[in-house]
Design a protein that fits this description.
Helix 1 runs parallel beside helix 4. The protein is 27% helix and 30% strand. It starts with a helix and ends with a helix. The longest helix has 16 residues. It has a single domain, classed as Beta Barrel (Lipocalin), CATH 2.40.128. The protein has 208 residues and is α+β, with helices and mostly antiparallel strands.
Length: 208
Amino acid sequence: MAMFVTVLVIASVFTGSQAGLIPSCTLPQVSDEVDMGKVQGDWYLSARENQEVYDVISCEVSTNTKTEQGFTAHVKFYNGEDASDVREDTPEFTRVAPSTFHIVQNKGDSSEITEIENDDTNAGADAQIVLEDDSIRQNPFLYISDYATYNLILHCNLDGDKEIYVETKTPSASGDVILKVRNQLIDFENGWENVKVHPSKCDQVIGK
């Protein structure tokens, strides 16, 4: 799928009228428990928030391992459009509610974020990246998966804004996957279906 088509499809599917948005952010409560043991193989972050850090990181690829407390994610960060420029991190997540996880690491810069600050950004971008990083470390995630084509990750940032991340088995999301995710967001209600997400550059860095 060409990048122009991907942008057009994702923008039209995931973006709704801003007038209908609810300002407060609350993660949906679910009763079904995601089985991280079934979330196998590599998952590409194909759609995500428009954050400062993604001006540097063009693609993320995660491989999850189920643990007694939750799961560990081995993440590869691709810097720019050079597929050989890769950094790695292994955050641990603990379960705090059904299908809801909190990162175990303490608030502050991970080695990955520190490297990004030192090597690739200006001071203003540094401060925003640290804020985004702290948000990820303080607030929990809701993790939904169909185990075959997508993982849908919902998050509330420190400003109370809704954030959505979509992982897929291919570097870019297909139309069928986008529709599945869209329907799931509609089911969650509370404005989640109106949150705008952007395509990553995984298909440019790694291929389609």
